[in-house]
């Protein structure tokens, strides 16, 4: 069965030229909820929206193509691509493509009555898993994990048990985990699953797994950590009572957790301490994905789409004790510097501000500020670790005001 797919629009996200120091940049794309995002390599990524849209980038998130999935009879719950050809998404039904989305095959995992599927993955081109709830008004609710070995044409019930399952993840072909109120594990390709333990919290998403260590995003502001494959847990409270929807670690120490009401927290010490990051949104954030230690994306409700090029760290601080009378761009200090320096400027009124660093040939080396700012005095701590030694110029553009100063990086 051939299914026609219409490409309706093209979306651009700003270039990645060293947007270092900007934190999370908000990009509102349409009004549909983004429910998932994943990259198959550092260039190619996919994002699903609940209102039947599939977004794709082939240049590390700078530009996104939108494809309307007009054959879908339901809202999309989640989805992912295993490679350029094999992709999968679900709601009540499961849809799989093996030709990059040109056509989609619809199937339904086995059920006693009705399914509400929450998570789906493909671990290779033919084998995948879907988990969620098998429910009926007259029967107890059961959690369900289903498995396909022929690219979604057929599914078998892999594990009916528990109450519900929100996530399923595999660390290799044979070993995987699934969770909600309990953690279950398989060592034989999902044929059978065994109860491991429970941290007595609602577990929503499992992070990347580092040997026996992984993290789980939970409700009520908690991230739980295990260092022995889930046999015991360490509860880590972030300080806010909010439900966390996803967790992602770029290595065994640096990780991010995202949740409702725009909350993002980052750890740099393996989860012992979590720092809140600014997102400038109060919308629920559903999934987070990083393609390297610095560049990451967050998918959220109502078209919320966030991107960072420096791990979400913001280096711009404001001093509003007094409103300046004039535009001012101060000389950076220290100068020369290695590797960081502070740049101070002042604006007497609210306006759109750009602070840009150029090399000796006039090429843009870093975009530091690119946003509307209120009147006040500002200080930006610029990290030049990614640049070569030499002479650079930093330029402030605020309304009709423009000024450029010279600085020297010595390594």
Write the layout of secondary structure elements.
Elements: E1 6-12, E2 25-28, E3 34-39, E4 45-49, E5 53-57, E6 63-68, E7 78-81, E8 87-90, E9 94-97, E10 105-107, E11 114-122, E12 128-136, E13 139-148, E14 156-161, E15 167-170, E16 176-179, E17 183-186, E18 194-197, E19 203-206, E20 214-218, E21 222-226, E22 234-237, E23 244-249, E24 255-259, E25 264-267, E26 275-277, E27 285-290, E28 296-300, E29 304-308, E30 316-319, E31 328-329, E32 340-347, E33 351-359, E34 364-373, E35 376-383, E36 390-398, E37 401-409
Antiparallel strand pairs: 1-6, 2-29, 3-4, 4-5, 5-6, 7-8, 8-9, 9-10, 11-12, 12-13, 13-14, 15-16, 16-17, 17-18, 19-20, 20-21, 21-22, 23-24, 24-25, 25-26, 27-28, 28-29, 30-35, 31-32, 32-35, 33-34, 33-36, 36-37
What is the CATH C level class of the largest domain, in words? Mainly Beta
Low-confidence segments: 1-21
Oligomer: single chain
Helical residues, percent: under 10%
The overall pLDDT average reads: 87
Task: Please provide a written account of the structure.
This protein is an all-beta fold and 411 residues long. The protein has 2 domains: 290 residues, 7 Propeller (Methylamine Dehydrogenase, Chain H), CATH 2.130.10; 94 residues, Macroglobulin (MG2) domain (Immunoglobulin-like, Sandwich). It is 0% helix and 51% strand. It contains no helices and 37 strands. The strands form 9 sheets. The protein has a 5-stranded antiparallel β-sheet, with no helix packed on it. The N terminus is likely disordered.
Could you give a quick summary of the protein structure above?
The chain has 411 residues and is mainly β. It is 0% helix and 51% strand.
